[in-house]
Amino acid sequence: MEQTLSSPPFRLTALSLLAALSLSGAVLAQETPVPVAASSGPVFSAPSAFSFDLLAERAATLARQPYVPTPVEHPEVLEKIDYDAHWRIRFRDAASVQVGDTSAQFFHLGTYFRQPVRIFTVAEGEAREVVYRPDYFEMPEDSPAHGLEENAGFAGFRLMRPDMKSDWISFLGAAYFRSDGALRQYGLSARALALNTGLSIPEEFPRFTEFYLEPGPDGATIVNALMDGPSVTGAYRMVMRDTPGKGQVMDISSRLFFRAPVERLGVAPLTSMFWYSESNRFQSADWRPEVHDTDGLMIHTGTGEHIWRPLNNPDRVVTSSYLDRGIKGFGLVQRDRDFDHYQDDGVFYDKRPAVWIEPVSDWGAGAVQLVEIPTDDEIYDNIVAFWNPETAPKAGDELRFDYRMHWVDKPPVDMPLAHTVATQVGNGGVPGQPRPKDAIKVVLDFAGPALEGLDPREGATPEISAPEGVEVVNPFIVRVVGTERWRLTFDLKARPETDTVDLRAYIAQDGVPLTETWLGQLHLAQIHRLR
């Protein structure tokens, strides 16, 4: 494992991000759709041949041509369709499109979603485009959306549950999508690809320009998508299943074609929010105990090691890289499911999904990269995690990545080891005695069957690794009274000029790990300043 740091001066917010996404990319030119029927329901164009291989061929052809962004039509009207005006526009149930056992509904354009996407249904090898009509939507009489043309187009779509009262997945903005997981609460987002995230150069946001929806086997829904952007084109095939109470599983195949070199390629990227938890409570004066969509990055390495990296809210942009080969999986995970730890009955952070990425093809060598961006509120998406291949793509390269994505309450990983349940940081020293100003106390709680019957007097030891120049003081383990948890506690001392420290810690029995590996990154200067 290796970690690298970078600190470019940029921030990423949920709203400004989506605005940027909707202004990038292009809609591919095709013949004008010819309506074949008119009714109160959806209207479709004439059919044309479709397959995923044909879609991939189109992506490859596009990559050999210069990128041509599509201009935004009527920006003065779209500017007025702000957040409130956008969500007052409702799609009519009667205009829903049936895709096998699933109903699809569409999103209207707005100031944060300015470029339309084309949406098709697929049956028996033929695709028909859903022709946009304003009467698919219910709009208030004073809605600025009435100022758009009859062929304005859709911003994205969502798939509805059978009761038509809620959706379980939505695609809206660039190549972003998200699902609500096992506990039916939206949280973090996924996207098709991340380009140059966390670097000093501008991040690029390719976008899905066309979607092809078709029924899949055993009740699944298949979403085929064409992606286009300045540096890359791509074809994606996503076979998706929603299982009540268990969440969603998506089998994703991607074929990528590069127009230009990319310095940092992010495969299967996940975007989330972390403001504060029990580990950095001192960074907020908010009344709630914790506020975050995700509390950690989980990795299952190619060698079989289980890693937990708790998230930080640093005072600068930080990128951490975890080198690996043949990785078994990684994901952004919300482990803490205790409502009392959040006390928010409006957005229910305790129900936010965990998302696990499981490669099903050989991804070779590379690194899981975690980008953490400073934030001072919950409205900012400040966490990104993805796989970065060892070799950066060049113009003309073709790459394929296949993986399974799980939107669940906990990752589907067989882990016999105990897992981390809390990371806590505070003043070093002993209560009632003078506290050393140069010491930080770290308290890690672990739980799991592997710790049952543990006796520190019989070979159980705390195993801690720290960089040169950092002293680990008085490490010990003890059972937390009245619980099944075991606590690993130690003080940390470092030279005053030490800024960031990367640590490894776990509990072992006769040298054999009983817990996953906790990888902690402590920004000592920030902690000393704020505590």
From TrEMBL:
Is the keyword Signal in the record? Answer: yes
Pfam families from the UniProt entry: MdoG
Chief location:
periplasm
Q: Which residues are in the Glucan biosynthesis periplasmic MdoG C-terminal domain?
A: 50-521
Report the locations given in the UniProt record.
Answer: Periplasm
The metabolic or biological pathway listed in the UniProt record of this protein is:
Glycan metabolism; osmoregulated periplasmic glucan (OPG) biosynthesis
* Signal peptide limits: 1-29
Alphabetically list the UniProt keywords: Periplasm, Signal
Q: Per its UniProt record, what InterPro entries does this chain match?
A: Gal_mutarotase_sf_dom, GH-type_carb-bd, Glucan_biosyn_MdoG/MdoD, Glucan_biosyn_MdoG_C, Ig-like_fold, Ig_E-set
Family classification: Belongs to the OpgD/OpgG family.
User: Would you tell me the protein name for this molecule?
Assistant: Glucans biosynthesis protein
